[in-house]
Amino acid sequence: MVNWIQLTQCADSALSSLWLGIASFGVPEKLGCAGLPLSGRQKELCKRKPHLLPSIREGARLAIQECRSQFRHERWDCLLLPPGSAAAAAFSVFGAELSSGTKETAFIYAVTAAGLVHSVTRACSAGNMTECSCDTNLQNGGSATEGWHWGGCSDDIHYGMWFSRKFLDGPIKNITGKDGNGLISMNLHNNEAGRQAVAKLLSVDCRCHGVSGSCAVKTCWKTMSSFEKIGQYLKDKYENSIQVLDRLKKKLRRKEKAQRKIPIRKEDLLYINKSPNYCVEDHKLGIPGTQGRECNRTSEGPDGCNLLCCGRGYNTHVVRHVERCECKFVWCCYVRCRRCESMTDVHTCK
């Protein structure tokens, strides 16, 4: 499986240009489509729609940021491998997860596809595109008897969904022409599950109109949920993901024979292989392990020292914090503060 995402970091170590695509490469903002490490179809799409490149970057930034947020307390913390490192060169900034067929693979594909839909749709609603804008199909609808009507600028996710499919799904389908590749079908399914999450979580916002602040009539429109909410929804799907067979007959099937009559839904996340425990460093797979990770001694959850440290125990050291405190304004004209010190116990995995 080829690489999927590559990260470029600015001098200030902030996340910079983040690219969705088949190749992994950091690129300057002004580089044209011809110079980008994309597949043939992606380059063609890029040349036709160069105005979408900022949305591609933003979609990748959203995806990586949300992945790290959702998994920050777990053994696999969506850690990005440093660009240029041996592991990143061998795999991608996500290590071997993009080709492992695990639950983590499922989440990465889903959240990146959702991020691209979200960013492109936002650009459409903001008026930054000539070929898409608001969802005008809703403008004349509503319920006069209930005192509301559709109006405003509803987010039209159809263009974002279309572009995400064209940009992300096409290259996967062209990786191999062989039938029966369960991993490819799994990745395509999880891409679509990410897009369905954005659609499912569309909400309705309303504004009241009337004399003296009354709500005699409401104007309502549809808007996308925050990407944080979408990320949490996909994390829940990750927790309840379904294992499927790695070889196809006609379609993806559940691995558990007793459950095969239960249909697989579009919004379900699918995986083929069980995940490693991520406890011990594995250079070949790009797994950093949990040694040195900070843990919570009193927590029973995944961030607790018992689970996060995989039973190896933990070290405790005291960290001294010095900060300004009890600041008061003195006339005239300066602020006087005390210098406060505190000691905190920090626990890290052995």
From TrEMBL:
Coiled-coil ranges per UniProt: none
Transmembrane segments: none
Any single Gene Ontology cellular-component annotation: extracellular space
Keywords: Developmental protein, Disulfide bond, Extracellular matrix, Lipoprotein, Secreted, Wnt signaling pathway
Source organism superkingdom: Eukaryota
Major subcellular location class: secreted
CDD domains to which the protein is assigned, alphabetical: Wnt_Wnt16
One Pfam assignment: wnt
GO molecular function: cytokine activity; frizzled binding
Gene Ontology terms: biological process: canonical Wnt signaling pathway; cell fate commitment; neuron differentiation
InterPro entries the UniProt entry points to: Wnt, Wnt16, Wnt_C, Wnt_CS
Subcellular location per the Swiss-Prot or TrEMBL entry: Secreted, Extracellular space, Extracellular matrix
Protein's job: Ligand for members of the frizzled family of seven transmembrane receptors.
Family statement: Belongs to the Wnt family.
Protein name: Protein Wnt
Organism: Chelonoidis abingdonii
Gene (UniProt): WNT16
